[in-house]
Amino acid sequence: MIESGGAAVRSLARALADRDADPVLLFVEGTAGLGKSHLLHGLAALPEAAEAARVWWRCGGDGGPWAREEPWREPALLLVDDVHRADEDELRRLRRVLEALGPGCAAAVAHRPEELRLPGLPLGAPAMAHPYRLTVLTERLAPWDEERVRRAAGEVLGDGASTDEAARALYERTGGVPRAVVDLLALLRERRPAFAGAAAEVAAAGVPARSAELVLSRTCALAPAHRPLVWAAAVLDAPAARDDLIAVAGLGTVPGNEALLRALECAALTEAAEGRYGFAVPVVAEAVRETVPGPVRQDLHRRAAAALSRSQPVAWAAVAGHHRAAGEDRKWLRAVEKAAESAAASGRYQQAITLLEGTLATPGLPPWARARLAPLLARNAVTGLRSDQTVEVLAQIVRDADLPPAVRGELRLDLGLMLCNQMGRFTDGWQVLEVAADELREVRSPLAARAMAALVMPYWPGASLDVHRRWLAKAVAAADDSGDEAMRTAVLANHVGLAMSGADPDAWELVARLPVQSTDPASARQAARGLCNAADSAVWLGFYGRVDGLLAEGRELAARSGAPYTEHSASGTRLLHAWWTGRWAGLARRCEEFVAATADMPFIASDAYIVRGLLALAQGDWGEARSWLSQRGTFGTENLPVPLGATAAGAVVRLLLARQEVAAAADRARAAWAVVADKGVWPWAAELAPWAVEALARAGDTAGAHTMVREFARGLGDGCAPAARAALTWSRAVLAEAEAPAEERPGALSAAADAYREAAAAFAELPRPYSRALAAEGAARCVLAADTLTAKGAEDGAGGGDRAAEPVASAVAELESCAQVFADLGAVWDATRARALLRTRQPARRGRPPGRPSHTDQLSPREAEVAQLASSGLTNREIAATLHLSPRTVEQHIAGAMRKTGALSRRDLAHRLEPDGPS
Questions:
Q1: Which residues form the HTH luxR-type domain (predicted)?
Q2: Which contiguous run of DSSP H or E holds residue 673?
Q3: Pick from 114, 112, 82, 84: which is nearest to 267 by CA?
Q4: pLDDT per residue as tens digits for the range 409-423
Q5: Rounded to an integer, what distance in angstroms lies between the CA atom of residue 138 and that of residue 105?
Q6: Which stretches of 175-293 are DSSP H helices?
């Protein structure tokens, strides 16, 4: 079938459909492999050709239609293939046949323009005598575009293999020539293991046999003196200008021009773009290179390196490859260094990393080369985004005893930074950085200040705040001694992080000192890091109004100075900021996209994992919550930065409490609390404290809960940490609610409600709507519980006291508001829990009239709530605890919901409950 026909094809179809229509002669023009024969078969299958006599004629073979002197009277479709193979006699006979075309007849003549005996004259000379009213049209076939190549890959290999990466690689290697695409896809289809859609797999598939045979036969058809020009094109492996081809071939101007003309005439080469020549199917360059004798090939590569070195800008990576292929090792390594420097200067860090990793992994590399290239690799990896091999390569190189001490110290510094910042291996990274600081100090390197500054950052588990402060004093002194402005800025950036983490009131003055207007790229990168450090700390402290400005300025400066790692870390801070400020719309998707984009370095996406887990917990999808909070097994959660680890632990403790696993919750709370206490950065306890206090209190360890509250308060001191102060008030409310004596419980609960309200007001001021709603829910819960106890005491005649209607009504209204806030945010579990508590205080609805069924086809409100939680993965016991029901009642509601929706399982309920799903 014809996939798409132009106007010429449509005209041919109309001629066949009407016996009185003017005859049509269609020339189908296309280079080898573009699908001319395929188009002819498509024309033969046209519905309009069903009643016509279809006559096939393949030129260069035997037979063909007889010559006719009279016009065709019956409808006929003449299909002529490979007219470029016809000799003079056959062309003469063909012209006579075409001259005899009559009304209702059509002919399609396919040819390769590059192989015609007379360029531009498919039917040769003399020109054909066109019959009366004959319409002559041309259909020029073109290579496929990248999207069509992608579709072909999906048809042959399945949609999972038709990735952007694979489609681009297929298109680049085949030039979009359909026959080459189909043949290369056939090679990939036979691969074991199955093709996974990577560009490297496409490169490893080899050269399609038909494409290789065609170009080699055309090359062999050239005179021996002309073949070096085709070899030069194969060595350059990209469309090249005439003078470059001639220079690489080693030919003079006159013989070089002659060789190029002959190569174009026989279609060994083609004009890929104006003034640039290469192969129609780029992958065949590999096949041509393999036929060139080794010494000749080396000479070609040597001349290619020289030619490319004269162009501007110099493609140093390509120059390096040619020097290596020519056996010029020293020139190869110098070119690699220049290529990496050029890539880094334009922000292409990953390209530089890949080139340097491959070079440094070469056996027998001389020590001088390792000493020059390894620091370059480390700088690119630390500034950019690491590859999986970089740490291993650096770890091997620093063990090289022949390295100069200053080089080894610099490499060790970069290795330590990568282990900490990009891999989350804090213990290993800390040890490496300590050694690097000593090595660099001994050789009086300015980088000693950078190593010491790295040890100032408090995010990592382990060392206490006092240890970081001691390193700060050393780093400041070393930076001042160095006289290096970039080193001073690096120390200042980390001083900002340390001061803000500890809620130092002077921290904002340090932020203002960052040289954001510096024209030195190294200083600008460090200033950008300082701004992003400040934004991250502001999120943890609760200064949400300042975060957007800091991030915008920091990201802009990072982009301008070339610091992609800083840009990525800022993206994680944005996710945390959105979580706490209640901007949840699309947040789960953004987290998942960030995780996917950083799949080969999951530690950098740890913020996204935590936020996604917190969302899942609020939504009631507890299985997903536990998975995301544990980083989905990508690395150990014990390696998380302390604030993230405390936040994740707080969420897990809350989850365990909801599941009534109180002892496990208390154990997890104690372990997480110890990490924060050892670090001594108490604002980071904010997301753990309320849940840890509740866990210990519910486990009967009220003394431990009191100790936590005291340590939290003492640790905060006079520090400016609004989020932590609100969390401290919340923790005190939790403790007051949990330990109210039975005989004083109504009054104690009222006091706890006051503390909850105070916490809610503090969160509202930040603002943190989700935390405010949780605290307000706690206040309402205490008021309602106190009222219930008062009422029970009155009923029992125990002098329960007077019941106040106004506080209860206010609590119910507040609870309704909380439920709405939860629902608006998408916190399904919290909204359901709040509504369940509300129902204990709302009057029962009037009973329905006898004999009238209720909710026979639709879910009742209670069934809908139970089904929503069940579809999220909660067990009957967990649902019962949330909704204050018995497990048996929950079981009945689930059964009713499954029957009414037609769900086949609890998980299937999720799809049935969607607005556009089955009802």
A1: 852-917
A2: helix 662-679
A3: 114
A4: 888 888 888 888 777
A5: 17
A6: 178-189, 199-204, 209-220, 227-236, 242-249, 253-265, 284-291
